[in-house]
Design brief:
single chain, 405 residues, alpha/beta, TIM Barrel, 6-stranded parallel sheet, 4-stranded mixed sheet, 17 helices, 44% helix, 12% strand, binds iron/sulfur cluster
């Protein structure tokens, strides 16, 4: 019965057939085209975002079927440590509850020694990756970002460095008056592997003006990501939704990402990031709504599965934003990746996210088996490192972390 966690106890093809039969004709047509592997247009995606009741159920079931066809029954996760090296930032993004001012009791700026220590500790707990993002610290220059990568690679040469959002790339290059291309090349020489496709928020000028005062324009985000991909530095792709946005902007954002992928092939995955409102200034000021609804969470992942089919086939669910139980539901409605173990995530927590700082590899395996799927550890670029069909990850990976300082 675990296999049907949150679902009706029916066989999958039968359930799909039944759902399609009860959908309206126009929606059934779009879903059937998707099941045949056809590419969805913007108007199809807009129609799917409008679905309700039976049509919505048919969308979710189709997303699950397309997931099965494209990537099978494996649910992947990555063993990773997030190292948020500084939270000092004066940029003033209105959705951010993470940034602090220098001198604030909670302000942090980690030394290179501490970054190296956390990296070694992560490797001992099975990490294949460190993910590093931080505030735009007023004294950081390109060389400081390079020194961070160097410190990690000197500590653990084989670890993958996934670091610095396009906003940080623009900032570091600007601070040292070098081009984005030159900065990325220097980082790559130091050992940078991939960059997070964060700071995309929603690639729409009106929305960005509200969220970030457009300090990194949509055009700049696209250019930086394409430059990275051209230099062999792949990235994730993301969308932060559920604030002052809606389906029209989501579809345009999806189109932009798919166009980039057609040109570069550099995206490893798509990660929808639900807006965490609790401590975000834009919510506290009454401008943004209180995050996405449950239905919107389902739709964004399901439509992404269909819209990106054949171009971006890894759809990640963020347990940090949604919690592991909701993540389980979404993994049964289009998603195939559970994200990372994290070990000390602090950005979402600072904005008030209620979920923990870490899910251990063994816990991931339990959550994945509960929904009748096969757990597998992947690396940053989605190569399988280990399958845990019947065995569990090493128990020494469960060691408590040393207190951070
Ligand atoms: S989102 Fe990043 S750049 Fe914006 S205020 Fe927060 S830490 Fe600074």
């Amino acid at each position: 019965m675990l296999r049907t966690f949150g679902r009706e106890a029916e066989t999958e093809p039968h359930r799909l057939e039944k759902r399609l039969a009860s959908a309206s004709r126009p929606i059934r047509k779009v879903l059937e085209a998707s099941l045949e592997g056809k590419e969805l247009g913007a108007s199809d995606a807009r129609a799917l975002f409008e679905t309700r009741a039976e049509d919505l159920q048919a969308l979710l079931e189709t997303a699950d079927a397309v997931r099965r066809r494209r990537v099978g029954e494996t649910v992947t996760f990555v063993v990773v440590r997030n190292i948020n090296f500084t939270n000092i930032c004066y940029t003033g993004c209105r959705f951010c509850g993470f940034a602090k001012r220098e001198g604030d009791p909670e302000a942090e700026f980690l030394s290179l020694e501490e970054i190296a220590r956390r990296t070694k500790e992560a490797a001992a707990r099975g990490a294949t990756e460190v993910c590093m993002q931080g505030g735009l610290h007023p004294r950081m220059k390109a060389e400081d970002y390079c020194a961070i990568v160097r410190a990690v690679k000197e500590a653990v040469p084989e670890i993958h460095v996934h670091a610095f959002s396009p906003f940080e790339i623009k900032y570091g290059a600007g601070r040292s008056r070098i081009s984005v291309e030159e900065f990325l090349l220097r980082l790559k020489e130091e050992g940078l592997g991939t960059i997070p496709g964060t700071a995309a928020e929603i690639l729409d000028t009106r929305i960005r003006k509200t969220l970030t005062k457009d300090k990194l324009s949509a055009r700049e985000w696209v250019e930086i990501v394409k430059t990275a991909h051209r230099l062999g530095i792949r990235s994730s792709s993301t969308m932060m939704y559920g604030h002052v946005d809606g389906p029209a902007e989501w579809v345009a954002h999806f189109e932009t990402l798919r166009e980039i992928q057609k040109e570069t092939g550099g995206f490893t995955e798509f990660v929808p990031l639900g807006f965490v409102h609790y401590d975000a200034p834009i919510y506290l000021d009454g401008v943004a709504r209180p995050g996405p609804t449950r239905e919107e969470n389902f739709k964004v992942h399901a439509v992404a599965r269909l819209f990106f089919q054949g171009w971006i086939d890894n759809i990640q669910v963020s347990w940090v934003k949604l919690g592991p139980r909701m993540a389980q539901y979404i993994l049964q409605r289009g998603a195939n990746d559970f994200g990372g173990t994290l070990m000390n995530e602090s950005i979402s927590r600072s904005a008030g996210a209620r979920f923990g700082e870490e899910i251990s590899p063994a816990e991931f395996c339990r959550y994945i088996r509960e929904i009748g799927r096969i757990p597998a550890q992947r690396n940053t670029v989605y190569e399988i490192v280990a399958r845990y069909e019947t065995t569990d990850p090493p128990s020494e990976w469960e060691q408590p972390l040393a207190p951070v300082h």
